[in-house]
Amino acid sequence: MIKSETEYDPNITEEQEKNLILREYRGLLRALKSRLKKGDKKTVRRAFEIASEAHKHMRRKSGEPYIFHPIAVARIAVEEIGLGVTSACCALLHDVVEDTEITLADIETEFGITYAKIIDGLTKISNIVDASGTESMQAEN
Q1: Over the stretch 12-39, which tens digit does the pLDDT of each residue have?
Q2: CB 116 within 8 A of CB 107
């Protein structure tokens, strides 16, 4: 599993926190470097900006900013699974439709139908739970 580049300390300043978020984002860009085509970096940046803004007031139980989670998911998609730019962007955006005011229509307007369909599918997969409360094989597949 991908480990963040820096352990989170809940006692850091807001400026230090912003720097940690940017460090994690740059780690994602480094992972994508060999896959980036013309215009891709701008698309990844836009996905990151939207996710960051949408989650700016959200925190995990640990106190860390929520944006660390979508960045980590994007890095796993790229570094461990070998997926590319579209998958990384969708990973960055995967929770905005469920957790914020951003809609699938907003995603489609900003990124196109492919992104909207992928994110819709990711949202549906995350909601598949079997009767015992554990993830089903269908969701894992």
Answers
A1: 899 999 999 999 999 999 999 999 999 9
A2: yes
